[in-house]
């Protein structure tokens, strides 16, 4: 409701649109955190979820590496990042790297594109 100051006192005006009750569930990758904030984009109100993955990756960690398609992911020793690309102990460069938690399940999720 809005208060209209020009109509001889206080009068309420009902809004034409009502917010629908909506529920959305997001699954976050392990070791990540999320922040939710309201933002106005192009005159519309949105809830924006920003997901930040903690950097458990340090030199010597076992990591899962892949480029364009996670179906070809490999597990190798992480050495570092250079020019925005990760590299392993064999000096192969990769677009993506994720610390391996040592489970077959995590590796299979990457292969299926779920992480």
- Specify Rg, calculated over alpha carbons: 23 Å
Strand order of the largest sheet: 8-7-6-5-9
Helix-strand pattern: EEEEEEEEEH
Spans of at least 5 consecutive residues whose pLDDT stays below 50 are 8-13
> What structural class is derived from the secondary structure elements?
mainly beta
Distance linking N and C termini:
43 Å
Rounded average pLDDT: 82
Task: Give the helix level as a range of percent.
Answer: under 10%
Number of strands: 9
Shape: elongated
Strand content: 35-45%
Q: Please outline the major beta sheet.
A: 5 strands, antiparallel
SSE layout:
Elements: E1 2-3, E2 12-13, E3 32-41, E4 44-53, E5 62-66, E6 74-82, E7 85-88, E8 93-94, E9 96-99, H1 104-111
Antiparallel strand pairs: 1-2, 3-4, 5-6, 5-9, 6-7, 7-8
Describe it.
This protein is mainly β. It is built from one helix and nine strands. Strand 7 (85-88) and strand 8 (93-94) form a beta hairpin. Residues 8-13 have low confidence and may be disordered.
List keywords for this structure.
mainly beta; 5-stranded antiparallel β-sheet; two-stranded antiparallel ribbon; 115 residues; 1 helix
């Amino acid at each position: 409701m809005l208060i209209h100051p020009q109509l001889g006192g206080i009068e309420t005006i009902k809004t034409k649109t009502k917010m629908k009750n909506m529920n959305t569930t997001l699954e976050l990758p392990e070791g990540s955190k999320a922040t939710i904030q309201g933002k106005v984009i192009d005159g519309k109100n949105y809830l924006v979820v920003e997901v930040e993955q903690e950097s458990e990756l340090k030199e010597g960690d076992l990591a899962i590496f892949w480029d364009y398609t996670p179906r070809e992911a490999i597990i190798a020793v992480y050495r570092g990042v250079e020019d925005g690309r990760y590299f392993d102990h064999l000096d192969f460069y990769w677009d993506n790297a994720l610390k391996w938690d040592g489970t077959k399940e995590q590796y299979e999720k990457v292969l299926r594109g779920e992480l």
